[in-house]
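User: Can you predict the 3D structure for this chain?
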Amino acid sequence: MTATQNSIEQSFECGICYDYLMDVRETPCCHQLFCFTCIQQWLNQGGSCPQCKSTSLTENTLLKNVVLQRIVDNIELDCPYVLAGCSAKVPRCDLENHKQLCPYSTAKLADKQQQKLQKSIALLNQYTETAIPVSDNDLYDLAKALHEQYAYAEARKCFGKMKTKNSSLEIVILQAHIERDDGKYTDALRLYDQAYDMTTSPSQRIELLLAKKRMFITVPDKSIPPLDLSHNMSCRSEN
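Assistant: Here is the predicted structure, written as structure tokens:
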């Protein structure tokens, strides 16, 4: 943002709350601009003009600035949910309506997440309650989706139907992540060790050691046993 743009935006800010002006009022004594609610509360507390300290300023002497109000109402702002993914630029006067309809709002995203979870659970029921053969790849994809949806108990049911749950490195690592995220740290450590033994890739082994280490950083109590790298180091020396 250039200095000129910055100074222009500052001219649309309330001199009390420093947010964009709402229901603009101008003081006749020094022509400073305020939100009506802000200056009203200020004067009700017995204050003089916040800018020039004039004691003659009252609520009745405040001036409306219709032209500036129109300009402020049409300033385009980022959607409040920009960090969630909304890229819309919305006129100030339409912002409240946009917030209610925005598909990236907290409520809308929660509903969308709940719908995804319900679909995943319906698919899980289809896999577990019918005799139709299901591949381990399909079960893995479903377990991964349920893990991302924090449905750990349901994700474990997928592993129960897998034929290669103890022989596939990818599946064992996913099981470890689920146990870790569900607070089952002893089970998670066992599975990380199992995955470590299953791979000879240095990069994968480093990732597994770091995953184990993160548990000790994020859980600073005694709910998990002391970190023991001797097993991993002995496996490394054997290789």
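Residues 56 and 215 are 64 Å apart (CA to CA). Residues 166-239 form one domain.
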